[in-house]
């Protein structure tokens, strides 16, 4: 069976750990949207590994990992991550991925100083903009010198005006960008292929595919808290656009969420306890190590919000739930949850074997109407209970 692992909150729900565990049961692991704005943290034997663009299944050397067409790819970051692995990953990259160019990163950083969306400043938004306005550079263009040069010239004709006149800074040189990016293309060449066909063939051969979501449902460009969202669709429907598989492909959807809520960047955040109880927010942030895996920014802390979870479950067609970071509340006397617009109090627990914990899971299942199949109680691979 195919499985998708999707975040039901604002990202950082613990999807990487789940993908790492579920990878063992699947043949192919696929990223289908977003870029290196994601930060997936995995602990193996107490060693912390953070991937930003590599699929989290890459540590399973016998599994095929795919970066599909819906992803925006920063070749520099990908090559650095491959280098840091110390082995050649079993990886294929779609020739149709759009490339994050240095002018995208620069534009994202300059805009952020003016508009304050709280982006990761990795060039994600500007790369998707160029994709939609048909000015983007595809991964396959990196291997075609004349097309690459022409597209960079076209892009910089426009972007340099913005840099020089709107932002009063230096423009970029076509030659420098071209030389660097055509070199990246040759380094990536062994990995580049038609992943649409590869994945369609995998389905025909009854191979099982694991789709690795990035960010979270509430950051979806259509269904999230616009404009405080990322620039891709983070929800289940984009699995198909982002890979080229038919929407009729059967997929089990695991919705991942933490026992509390976090958010980085600007925008509304229900159940936020930063103002009402800053000490408690600080405690949860420290115990839960709630600092951005990509940017290191402290994450805002809030209570779990069942109304938002219901919205996310409906959007994604979630069939199983994964409740993460339950150990962060070990020893807490009480905590809260937002439900039907009210803030309700619950008793804390010391472990997942406590009655209070079991009662809370029952409350979740009763009100969300989806079974909680996974319960994570620590950062390591083996600290998860599943049915
Ligand atoms: P962008 O995706 O870098 O354009 O940032 C847009 C919004 O999404 C900002 O609020 C970011 O903090 C947020 N964001 C992007 N990626 C992640 C993630 O992986 N986890 C949590 N928030 C993210």
Describe this structure in words.
This protein starts with a strand and ends with a strand. The protein is built from eleven helices and 18 strands. It has helices at 15-23, 75-85, 102-115, 124-132, 145-166, 174-188, 195-204, 238-241, 278-287, 306-316, 355-368; strands spanning 2-7, 28-31, 40-44, 47-51, 64-67, 72-73, 91-94, 98-99, 192-193, 209-212, 251-258, 260-263, 300-305, 320-324, 334-339, 342-347, 372-376, 384-386. Strand 3 (40-44) and strand 4 form a beta hairpin. The strands form four sheets. A ten-stranded mixed sheet has the order 9-7-5-2-10-1-11-14-17-18, with helices on both faces. Strands 12-13-15-16 form a four-stranded mixed sheet. The protein is of the alpha/beta class and 387 residues long. The chain is 33% helix and 21% strand. It is globular, with a radius of gyration of 21 Å. Helix 3 (102-115) crosses helix 4 and helix 5 packs across helix 6 (174-188). Residues 10-12, 37-39, 117-120, 122, 124-125, 214-215, 219, 228, 230-231, 264-265 line the site of inosinic acid.
Sum this structure up briefly.
This protein is of the alpha/beta class and 387 residues long. It has helices spanning 15-23, 75-85, 102-115, 124-132, 145-166, 174-188, 195-204, 238-241, 278-287, 306-316, 355-368, and strands at residues 2-7, 28-31, 40-44, 47-51, 64-67, 72-73, 91-94, 98-99, 192-193, 209-212, 251-258, 260-263, 300-305, 320-324, 334-339, 342-347, 372-376, 384-386.
């Amino acid at each position: 069976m195919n499985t998708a692992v999707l975040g039901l909150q604002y990202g950082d729900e613990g999807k990487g750990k789940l993908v790492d565990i579920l990878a063992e049961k699947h043949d192919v692991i696929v990223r289908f949207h977003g870029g290196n704005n994601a930060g997936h943290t995995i602990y193996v034997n107490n060693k912390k590994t953070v991937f930003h663009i590599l699929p989290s299944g890459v540590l399973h050397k016998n599994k095929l990992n795919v970066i599909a067409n819906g992803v925006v790819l920063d070749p520099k970051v990908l090559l650095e991550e491959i280098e840091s692995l110390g082995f050649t990953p079993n990886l294929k990259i779609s020739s149709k991925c759009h490339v994050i160019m240095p002018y995208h990163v620069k534009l994202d950083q300059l805009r952020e100083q003016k508009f304050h969306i709280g982006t990761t400043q990795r060039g994600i938004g500007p790369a998707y903009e160029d994709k939609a306005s048909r000015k983007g550079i595809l991964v396959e263009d990196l291997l075609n010198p004349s097309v690459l040069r022409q597209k960079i010239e076209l892009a910089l004709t426009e972007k340099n005006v913005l840099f020089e006149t709107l932002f009063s800074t230096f423009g970029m040189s076509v030659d420098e960008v071209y030389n660097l990016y055509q070199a990246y293309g040759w380094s990536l060449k062994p990995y580049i292929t038609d992943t649409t066909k590869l994945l369609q063939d995998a389905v025909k051969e009854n191979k099982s595919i694991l789709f690795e979501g990035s960010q979270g449902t509430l950051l979806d460009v259509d269904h999230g808290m616009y404009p405080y969202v990322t620039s891709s669709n983070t929800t289940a429907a984009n699995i198909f656009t982002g890979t080229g598989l038919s929407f009729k492909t059967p997929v089990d959807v695991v919705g991942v969420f933490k026992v509390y809520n976090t958010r980085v960047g600007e925008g509304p955040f229900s159940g936020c306890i930063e103002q009402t109880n800053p000490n408690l927010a600080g405690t949860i942030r420290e115990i839960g190590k709630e600092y951005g895996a990509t940017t290191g920014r402290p994450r805002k802390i809030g209570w779990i919000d069942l109304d938002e979870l219901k919205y996310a479950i409906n959007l994604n067609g979630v069939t199983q739930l994964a409740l993460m970071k339950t150990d962060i509340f070990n020893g807490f006397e009480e905590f809260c949850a937002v439900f039907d617009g009210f803030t309700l109090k619950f008793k804390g627990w010391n472990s997942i074997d406590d009655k209070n914990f079991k009662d809370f899971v029952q409350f979740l299942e009763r009100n969300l109407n989806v079974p909680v199949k996974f319960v994570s109680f620590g950062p390591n691979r083996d600290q998860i209970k599943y049915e």
